[in-house]
Amino acid sequence: MTIFITTMFIFLAFSLHADIGYCFGINYGQVANNLPQPEKVLVLLSTLNLTKTRIYDTNPQILSTFSKSNIEVIVTVENEILNQLDDPQQALQWVNSRIIPYLPNTKITGIQVGNEVFTDDDTTLLQHLVPAVINIYNALAKLGYANIWVSTPSSLAVLETSYPPSAGSFKGEISSMMYQFLNFLQTTKAPFWINAYPYFAYKDDPDSIPLDYVLFNPSQGMVDPTTNLHYDNMLYAMADAVSFSIAKMGFKGIEVRVSETGWPSRGDPNEVGASPQNAATYNRNLLKRQMANQGTPLNPRMRLEVYLFALFNEDLKPGPTSERNYGLFRPDESMTYNVGISTLATTSPSSSSSSSPSASGSFSIASSSTKIKVAPKGYQNLVYWMFVYVLVSILYV
What's the predicted TM-score (pTM) here? Predict the structure, then answer.
């Protein structure tokens, strides 16, 4: 009963403020043996008005289930098969078997070729990356789907320097492959995706990095001495460091997007900062920025597209305890912690001084292509408080 009431409360909060059209998605990882079936996941995403998700493979059950829904899906080529896809014929066969059967009913909007290949422990993967990217794009174009972008997500470890942002530069040992990859992105107008986790930076150096700065809380922040741009949070500084790195390679107009970011709700004793409170604060404040359609200090008029990691806790992920505790939800679909979405939904993004000119006064985790009519504000408030009254009555009878 409590889970039902919580879900209905979130649903109402989202539904009353459902026209923001900002760039926000969520990663739907599946390294677990206890997750709900895709049919239930689709209901959960729809209840929350989430219309963008990324999966880490081309799971046919998920792609079939999401058919004819409003969910936009990014799929992923597993690292293990990159060496096969530098053959154009095998890449064409992969697209024909893994992508084409689900189009156009399933809204596959992008393909991530591998994950963090530039910094993978298996250095032999890198030589296959750019050929695989090009071959998959060419196969899509040949079959009439050149509108599906092709890219790859990278960790911040691709950078030799990331602080201050204007000093951002790629590591020398990957510069040749990175140049080829950036040339492809500029030619096809595809985005550069980064997996950016301020949590890792804080965990490694909690005495030097202010917690408020990494959690998007009010803080002194930092000023880039070269550009005089002020950064009040680390995620935006990370994104701009990548933008400066791209520019130093001689490329312009390549959009930087965040393919993963998040905060663990649990960790081992040596994982400083991993807690439900910090996870809720990070994700809540990130959502506020997304509500305001914010860009970074370097690109204030371009909304930063962000995919939160992750939808569920994943019990089979290897590594420290934190790796299994990034989810907003437990496998039983109950919330891991209160992210405060109901409070956010009643906060007008126009009150933010750093919001973009296109910021709207309503709220939903929805893509820019989804527009849901919103009731007049007075009516919204009336219904909201009526629901609160009913909720309190149920809980305390």
Answer: 0.83
